[in-house]
Specification:
Elements lengths: L1 H5 L2 E4 L7 H11 L1 E7 L4 E5 L1 E7 L5 E7 L5 E4 L4 E5 L8 H23 L5 E4 L5 H12 L17 E4 L6 H19 L14 H7 L1 H25 L4 E4 L7 H20 L1
Antiparallel strand pairs: 1-10, 2-3, 2-7, 4-5, 5-6, 8-9
Helix pairs in contact: 3-5, 5-7
Amino acid sequence: MKNLAENVFKFNNLPEYIDLSYLNRTLLNEGAIAFFKDEVLNEVIALPFGSYGSLDMYGRPINIEVNGDNGYRRYLKKGEYVIMYDNTSKYSLKLDIAQLAERIALCVRTQDINIVHQRTPRIWKCDSNTEKSVKDTINEIDSNVETVISTRDSAFADIQGVLNPAPYVTDKIDDHLDKLWAQFYALIGVANLSIQKKERMITDEMSASQGGTIVSRYSRFEPRQRAIEKINEKFGLNMSVEYYDGEPSTEKGKDEDEDVSNDVFADTVSS
């Protein structure tokens, strides 16, 4: 889920020295990252930072300290850097994602248990003195070993068996999982459509169902776009950002997909 949340955006003309995966991971985990120019490397780089000293009237940092994983450290004053935020609220989404991931994991685990319980459970009631004999007999039956019990054997005289199969609820949990994944996609700004028991949906209904996704998409795209405009102006770059709205493919694969889609569409119309 973190991998999906990190790779929603496509950065164009990113400086070669900046690691894209590190940039995306820092934005998601920390909620912000600072762009600045290093005079030694003579490159624009992006690193996580901490604020030191006082803040301005809006609570924004004035002086920051950037830190690299290799021990790199540098203090920057206002005007030497540009901060890019992950969303307009300027906080990390990792806790929201972790909460949804825990709920999804709970659903999947419940499904596993429910499927196991579809095997008819057998509850045997017996005397404590005969417990081992009964267990050995049950294990032999499970191992497809023929078992013969004498009617005069007092060890099995008072045994009672109870059959109590668990209700099958995995399909209902699947519906709940679809809703949880839809919440996650809406959170990170990825368009999705979860429709159940409805063959058709009018355009207005479809647009209304995507309202949360549109808001989340704006919340994450706008601060990136604003930061890139400042970065380009300050450091003379030509960066841009956009949402991944297409399917990465080769030109040949793209043409084949279009041919298949056209064939399917033609078959549907003719039928």
